[in-house]
Amino acid sequence: MPRRWISERHMVKVLVEPRGAILALTTKTYSYLFILTGGFVGWRRVRTTDRVVARAGYSAPRTLELVSRLYPRGP
Q1: 26 vs 15, 29, 38, 72, CA distance in Å?
Q2: Which of 46, 44, 52, 41 is closest to 27 using CA atoms?
Q3: Which of 39, 5, 3 is nearest to 23 (CA)?
Q4: What is the pLDDT of residue 3?
Q5: What is the DSSP string of the chain?
Q6: Angstrom distance (rounded) from CA 11 to CA 3
Q7: Per-residue pLDDT for 71 more than 60?
Q8: Gap between the Cα atoms of 62 and 50, Å rounded
Q9: Distance in angstroms (rounded) separating the CA atoms of residues 41 and 55
Q10: Between the chain's N and C termini, which has fewer beta carbons within 10 Å?
Q11: 63 class by beta-carbon count within 10 Å (0-12 exposed, 13-18 middle, 19+ buried)
């Protein structure tokens, strides 16, 4: 398993892994994901209850793929 660093304290969550990084600002309704991977640098807004980072196995590229599939036109 690749090495990962995860911090899930309060409103700011950070995931750093070999294939990318995610900084998430979480509110009651939405999470704002700032994503850095080999092919993408940008941000996406997702519903907090969808827990996309956990569902993607704490992988930055898989999180981006899941967000694109769940929200083709935005949340």
Answers
A1: 13, 8, 24, 21
A2: 46
A3: 5
A4: 79
A5: ----EEEEETTEEEEEETTEEEEEEE-SSEEEEEEEESS-EEEEEEEGGG-HHHHTTS-HHHHHHHHHHH-TT--
A6: 23
A7: yes
A8: 14
A9: 21
A10: N
A11: buried
Q: Retrieve residue 23's tokens.
A: 């900084």
Model-level pTM?
Answer: 0.83
Q: Provide the CB-side half-sphere exposure for 63 (13 A, CA).
A: 32
Say how many residues make up the chain.
75
- Residue 73 tokens, joined: 């036109």
Give the position of tokens 């935005």: 74
Place of tokens 């969550």: 13
Residue 44: count other Cβ atoms within 10 Å of its Cβ.
21
